[in-house]
Design a protein that fits this description.
Length: about 220
Amino acid sequence: MTRKTYPFVALEYERHAPEEMLRRARAFHAALAQRRTVREFKPDPVPREVLEECIRAAGTSPSGAHRQPWTFVVVTDPALKREIREAAEVEEKLNYGGRMNEEWLLALEPLGTGWEKPFLETAPALIVVLRHAWDEERGERVRNYYTQESVGIASGFLLVALHDAGLATLTHTPSPMAFLQRILERPEHEKPYLLIPVGYPTDGCAVPDLARKPLGEILVWR
């Protein structure tokens, strides 16, 4: 295996005063507190450059050994979206029809979800996130490290970037997802990780009236 070393450069860093840090943290939380999962999308197209910049932001995510083990496939072709919907609904119908146990179904029931997934066609864009189980370099198979964690962090960056740009999203994980690799004609080492419909919510779009856990329930100081 070819050995590689990275040159080191000076870090560009600006330390803020505590008051400014707090202002930024509060503003960031306030912006993210408005993010909601949407299942009803307008068909209006999303500017291509906006999606490219959001994916560029996702690509700044940290990754194990800096392997950057991800590919983002943007699907806007109506025929491909229909094929993805049909394949996803086959799996989801099996899930809701017996694969998922009663406890799982009861957990989903308050959200009103089911096996039908029309948003996979109505959303103007689908972003399929793929995880690289390994990569090829100079004809050699190279192992990647912490791929689940790395791609999970990158997906989080992507969701935040899309929300900040003014777009609505849904995190969809039809299981199993191997059909995405087949439909999108991706190589063997790229494994489907997450499917994100992206677009604008419909007029009058309604979402469940949910509350996030308060800080006292999710933070522990030691």
